[in-house]
């Protein structure tokens, strides 16, 4: 087709015509052009071919529509419809392409986020973990470099702890004066995105020239908040084909940065908690004389009388509560701890005074220095002269905050998974379902509770399919060991309906051993229904064309037979007039005349045929039913 109409239609649709197929999202292929086949094949096998959304121009005849069967275009238009339909079809195809691309990107982001979360949970090698995070982010976003920079209390110096393009880079100190984007993130605690980095006002002249020289188009810097302060920055730079960062990508990167910050803090805090706990257990194991334990145990220990007044407080407890043993002696327990909920603390002490031991009760207290602590307290009866209760406690403030952050991250991920329109299903190695999101409920007809309590993963597939999928996951041919690339399968709905889906899947490993498998499923029922409707339209078109051929043939046959029949009837009638009824030849001539009239009636019916109707003839053979095929004209 001519370039000018295409340019005009694309402009009205808000699109731009490009010469390089690698820069295109939509492709309009003219299947009516002579010798178009090689060009179409070259287009579809190009690097960008699998990502193109096709619109086909076909001739309005059976061969034209048959030519698009293998292409499966998003839309079809004929030359007669070009002036009126092309703009509308381009707009619809562009919308469908954007929706498909957005779904694919969201699915990829979610898969990467699940992988990173699994790595955070099982990895103990922090350096390898951080490099893996930056490398996978750079690969997925197709950017030049992703870097993790840690900052101290000031904003003068930072340390690069991981870079996507250099596995060996770590502990590289940098002057933050050369990185105003990092300084701005530390100052505000908010992401900084520079889409036109070479001209962004945040950068000085020196930085702009450096950015332009390296071919950097966009910069994104995301904060890593730890204990309410920005202790690190995730820095990403886009160059080459990547021109900018979308809003969706910034939201995704913010989530990754938050999860990374939690993982970094978890590694530090958990190590501290485990070390303190081991020290306490070792000291408890060496407990011999009561006084030695009381003086040197790492946990706080207080001896209370019957009135909950402090008889003695060990050094660890005094340090923890910002007081001294002499100051605490004789004071009521509430007075030195100032609990937020004194009822919880007193119920603990009262239970011990009644002879009941209580363990691990969390109590929030305030110290004289103004600190708010969460103490895990245990109380047991101690009958020794005027002593009534021994109370031990340890500071779990950081551990509880860590648990809250992990819980919030878990809740966020669960909301993210549940908000996906695709079904996400995870099952352990025995087929027990451990994750069944809202998309899976809509697709399969079961609630999450029903799926987890009553279903086995095998029941979600037709017989034998689940075993085949697990074999593909464990093999190297469908995306690598532990991964399954996009494939078409079927899920079983609760009603027994088979639901066609596109799926990807992976096996999650813990310590090198298979833990569970997770699959992401996209419902194809709407697409299959659309394909079925298109097939029905093609069948109706084929039937219409068949009727047209029959009508044309009938008209031609009637026209051609009428002339010789007219001659036969005319000559037979002349012979009858010259013969008498008693003549020998009169009867044969009369039979010829009547049969010719009968043939004329048949020809008249043939000329009135307007549809294709058949009837049984001999055995299974079918012949044209002249009466039905022409009766509606009567």
Automatic annotation (TrEMBL):
<dbReference type="InterPro" id="IPR013656">
    <property type="entry name" value="PAS_4"/>
</dbReference>
<dbReference type="InterPro" id="IPR000014">
    <property type="entry name" value="PAS"/>
</dbReference>
<protein>
    <recommendedName>
        <fullName>histidine kinase</fullName>
        <ecNumber>2.7.13.3</ecNumber>
    </recommendedName>
</protein>
<dbReference type="InterPro" id="IPR003661">
    <property type="entry name" value="HisK_dim/P_dom"/>
</dbReference>
<dbReference type="Pfam" id="PF00512">
    <property type="entry name" value="HisKA"/>
</dbReference>
<dbReference type="InterPro" id="IPR029016">
    <property type="entry name" value="GAF-like_dom_sf"/>
</dbReference>
<dbReference type="Pfam" id="PF00989">
    <property type="entry name" value="PAS"/>
</dbReference>
<dbReference type="Pfam" id="PF13185">
    <property type="entry name" value="GAF_2"/>
</dbReference>
<dbReference type="InterPro" id="IPR013767">
    <property type="entry name" value="PAS_fold"/>
</dbReference>
<dbReference type="GO" id="GO:0000155">
    <property type="term" value="F:phosphorelay sensor kinase activity"/>
</dbReference>
<dbReference type="InterPro" id="IPR036097">
    <property type="entry name" value="HisK_dim/P_sf"/>
</dbReference>
<dbReference type="InterPro" id="IPR052155">
    <property type="entry name" value="Biofilm_reg_signaling"/>
</dbReference>
<dbReference type="GO" id="GO:0006355">
    <property type="term" value="P:regulation of DNA-templated transcription"/>
</dbReference>
<dbReference type="Pfam" id="PF08448">
    <property type="entry name" value="PAS_4"/>
</dbReference>
<feature type="domain" description="PAS">
    <location>
        <begin position="409"/>
        <end position="474"/>
    </location>
</feature>
<dbReference type="InterPro" id="IPR003018">
    <property type="entry name" value="GAF"/>
</dbReference>
<dbReference type="InterPro" id="IPR035965">
    <property type="entry name" value="PAS-like_dom_sf"/>
</dbReference>
């Amino acid at each position: 087709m001519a370039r000018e109409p295409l340019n005009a239609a694309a402009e009205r649709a808000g699109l731009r015509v490009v010469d390089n197929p690698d820069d295109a999202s939509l492709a309009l292929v003219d299947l009516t052009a002579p010798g178009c086949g090689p060009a179409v094949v070259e287009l579809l096998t190009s690097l960008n071919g699998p990502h193109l959304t096709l619109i086909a121009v076909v001739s309005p005849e059976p061969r034209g529509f048959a030519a698009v069967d293998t292409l499966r275009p998003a839309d079809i238009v004929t030359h007669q419809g070009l002036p009126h339909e092309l703009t509308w079809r381009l707009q619809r195809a562009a919308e469908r392409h954007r929706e498909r691309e957005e779904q694919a990107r969201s699915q990829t982001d979610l898969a990467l986020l699940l992988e990173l979360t699994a790595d955070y949970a099982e990895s103990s090698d922090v350096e390898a973990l951080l490099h893996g995070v930056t490398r996978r982010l750079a690969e997925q976003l197709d950017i030049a470099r992703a870097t993790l920079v840690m900052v101290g209390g000031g904003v003068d110096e930072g340390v690069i702890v991981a870079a996507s393009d250099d596995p060996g880079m770590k502990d590289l100190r940098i002057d933050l004066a050369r990185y105003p984007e990092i300084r701005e993130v530390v100052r505000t605690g908010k992401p900084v995105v520079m889409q036109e980095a070479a001209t962004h006002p945040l950068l000085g002249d020196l930085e702009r020239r450096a950015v332009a020289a390296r071919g950097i188009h966009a910069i994104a810097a995301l904060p890593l908040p730890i204990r309410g302060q920005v202790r690190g920055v995730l820095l990403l730079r886009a160059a080459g084909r990547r021109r900018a960062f979308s809003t969706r990508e910034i939201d995704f990167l913010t989530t990754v940065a938050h999860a990374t910050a939690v993982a970094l803090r978890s590694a530090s805090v958990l190590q501290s908690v485990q070390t303190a706990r081991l020290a306490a257990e070792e000291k408890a194991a060496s407990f011999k004389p009561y006084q030695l334990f009381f003086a040197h145990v790492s946990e706080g220990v207080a001896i209370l009388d019957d009135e909950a007044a402090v008889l003695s407080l060990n050094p660890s407890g005094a340090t923890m509560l910002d007081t001294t043993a002499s100051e605490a002696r004789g004071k009521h327990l509430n007075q030195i701890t100032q609990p937020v909920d004194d009822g919880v603390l007193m119920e603990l002490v009262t239970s011990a005074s009644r002879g009941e031991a209580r363990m691990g009760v969390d109590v929030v207290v305030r110290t004289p220095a103004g600190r708010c602590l969460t103490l895990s307290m245990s109380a047991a009866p101690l009958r020794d002269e005027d002593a009534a209760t021994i109370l031990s406690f340890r500071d779990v403030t950081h551990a509880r905050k860590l648990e809250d952050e992990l819980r919030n991250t878990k809740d966020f991920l669960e909301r993210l998974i549940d908000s996906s329109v695709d079904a996400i299903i995870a099952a352990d190695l025995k087929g027990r379902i451990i994750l069944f999101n809202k998309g899976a409920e809509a697709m399969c007809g079961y609630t999450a509770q029903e799926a987890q309590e009553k279903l086995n993963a095998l029941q979600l597939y037709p017989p034998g399919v689940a075993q085949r999928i697990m074999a593909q996951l464990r093999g190297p041919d469908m995306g690598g060991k532990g991964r399954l690339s996009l494939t078409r399968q079927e899920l079983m709905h609760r009603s027994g309906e088979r639901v066609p889906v596109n799926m990807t899947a992976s096996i999650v490993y813990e310590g090198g051993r298979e833990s569970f498998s997770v699959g992401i499923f996209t419902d194809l029922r709407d697409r299959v229904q659309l394909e079925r409707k298109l097939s029905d339209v093609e069948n109706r078109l084929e039937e219409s064309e068949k009727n047209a051929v029959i009508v044309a043939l009938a008209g031609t046959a009637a026209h051609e037979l009428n002339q010789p029949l007219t001659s036969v009837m005319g000559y037979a009638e002349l012979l009858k007039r010259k013969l008498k009824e008693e003549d020998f030849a009169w009867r044969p001539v009369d039979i010829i005349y009547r049969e010719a009239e009968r043939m004329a009636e048949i020809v008249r019916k043939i000329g009135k045929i307007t549809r294709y109707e058949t009837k049984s003839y001999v055995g299974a053979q079918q012949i044209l039913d002249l009466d039905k095929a022409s009766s509606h004209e009567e």
